[in-house]
Amino acid sequence: MKAPEDLRSHRWFGGGDLRNFSHRTRARQLGYEPEEHLGKPVIGILNTWSDINPCHQHLRERAEQVKRGVWQAGGFPLEFPVATLSETYQKPTPMLYRNLLAMETEELLRSYPVDGAVLMGGCDKTTPALLMGAASAGLPSIFVPAGPMLRGNWRGEVLGSGTDMWKYWDERRAGTIGDRELAELERGLARSPGHCMTMGTASTMTSAAEVLGLTLPGAASIPAVDSAHHRMAAASGARIVDLVWEDLTITKLLDERAYADAITTVLALGGSTNAVIHLIAMAGRSGISLSLKDFDAIARRVPVLANIRPGGDWLMEDFYYAGGLPGLLSRLTDLLHLDRITVTGRPLADSLAEARVHNDDVIRPRDNPVASEGGVAVLHGNLAPGGAVIKHIAADPALLTHTGPAVVFDNYADLKKRIDDPALGITADSVLVLRGSGPLGGPGMPEYGMLPIPAHLLEQGVRDMVRISDARMSGTSYGACVLHVAPESHVGGPLALVRDGDLITLDVPSRTLQLQVDDAELERRLASWAAPAPRFERGYGALYAEHITQADQGCDFDFLARAGANPEPDAG
Ligand code: FES
Ligand code: MG
């Protein structure tokens, strides 16, 4: 147990020198008497609330409930607004800014008198960003997930955010949906605060945070607008105060076993392919080297049990009622490290002691899984020497072994311009290739990976095709989309060398992705390939371009991912 003099904040407030006097003066300026804060853990509440982030619109109010818990437990809460990464609005993609929020998180925690951190996020990249920064800062930390929004609704039909947007937009392009229906869908797709309620990146990563041991048990599945979410926020605020006294830091929770359990859980959820990149990056901040091979190895022994869209039928609200993440984990106990300690201060097993499953279709039993192996397959081959991924459970099974001629698009603008051009002669057997969309080429690997099906094929009833890119794909998307091809075309990866008509073979059972062009020809093509000019000559973009790693390494900045001295500031 720590004593008040051991608190990090004591260095700011506790001593007798000029600076300590000055810091206490400013606490009075904030309106606090010394007895309200001196000797109490200072809890930094890092809040990604913003008017521009619809998924986090309730977090401004929810921070008040966190503060309630902090006060009740004898701490001193201070809220820090931090950058929000709004998945729908931020361009070219919030992925460009994940590392910026991670840096902001780490440096705020390091430079201010904070003893423990409450991290409030959920919309896609906010979760990995906050956790990467907190892992590097190394303080006691607890994550308050934003919670999924309510189910969407249209004419009594249940809608999933993202997933059904793509689906009905294709129907629109196929001419089966009119203006009136579209206007109704616009109102019904996202109808409450909270992050996407499909098993997209948001639900995947908040669930990963929970199994990593960084949330209170069950926190990640609670719908944003449920009163249980208020209570979870208050309880998280109370718990972080004790975590500080117990000196149970995030560093002590995040070991190799925790990341293995996170991969297991993400796969059993049929989670977003984005998790592959984020977990590699997060583990890197914990000094643990995860590779694509770890995902593939675990995927082969973990069944998909969560029957949630886009890979399944239900939504996060249903998942919560069915028992939530603890319910799912209670069916995976043989695959998890149950003796690991979590933010509760108790083993993971204790978090599952009362877990129950109330609906065997939403959370499947082991003998009736959604898929017998995990939702992500890792591919290698001459087209992806560094690896690529495919969420094969969300694809047409007939396409998982497929050879077809390439139709190549150099970048997203080219794709948008030409995809519906009948002169390209695209058939259902063609393999659509998009390049120029990787970490540098995108930049930020925008979620272009679910390339649109050409309109004439949609009209013929084609709903899936093999698509290959160095982009990412929204976790709410689906289809036979090979993603994260590494190295990307922008740095001269083989994707840069593909030409229209080249045959490409996708073979998911053997985990291969082959361009049927011989090595000598590929070398000739590489010799005449010219690297694109740098896009950014100044600013954050230039920093990003100089330091971003490729997808198979997690897309962190090289200088953030490495170990090394980073001294505590002198608060005197
Ligand atoms: Fe925020 Fe999907 S847009 S989680
Ligand atoms: Mg998304």
UniProtKB/TrEMBL annotation:
<feature type="domain" description="Dihydroxy-acid/6-phosphogluconate dehydratase C-terminal">
    <location>
        <begin position="361"/>
        <end position="555"/>
    </location>
</feature>
<dbReference type="GO" id="GO:0004160">
    <property type="term" value="F:dihydroxy-acid dehydratase activity"/>
</dbReference>
<dbReference type="InterPro" id="IPR037237">
    <property type="entry name" value="IlvD/EDD_N"/>
</dbReference>
<dbReference type="InterPro" id="IPR052352">
    <property type="entry name" value="Sugar_Degrad_Dehydratases"/>
</dbReference>
<dbReference type="Pfam" id="PF24877">
    <property type="entry name" value="ILV_EDD_C"/>
</dbReference>
<keyword id="KW-0001">2Fe-2S</keyword>
<protein>
    <submittedName>
        <fullName>L-arabinonate dehydratase</fullName>
        <ecNumber>4.2.1.9</ecNumber>
    </submittedName>
</protein>
<feature type="domain" description="Dihydroxy-acid/6-phosphogluconate dehydratase N-terminal">
    <location>
        <begin position="40"/>
        <end position="350"/>
    </location>
</feature>
<keyword id="KW-0479">Metal-binding</keyword>
<keyword id="KW-0408">Iron</keyword>
<comment type="similarity">
    <text>Belongs to the IlvD/Edd family.</text>
</comment>
<keyword id="KW-0028">Amino-acid biosynthesis</keyword>
<dbReference type="Pfam" id="PF00920">
    <property type="entry name" value="ILVD_EDD_N"/>
</dbReference>
<dbReference type="InterPro" id="IPR056740">
    <property type="entry name" value="ILV_EDD_C"/>
</dbReference>
<dbReference type="InterPro" id="IPR042096">
    <property type="entry name" value="Dihydro-acid_dehy_C"/>
</dbReference>
<keyword id="KW-0456">Lyase</keyword>
<dbReference type="InterPro" id="IPR000581">
    <property type="entry name" value="ILV_EDD_N"/>
</dbReference>
<dbReference type="InterPro" id="IPR020558">
    <property type="entry name" value="DiOHA_6PGluconate_deHydtase_CS"/>
</dbReference>
<keyword id="KW-0100">Branched-chain amino acid biosynthesis</keyword>
<keyword id="KW-0411">Iron-sulfur</keyword>
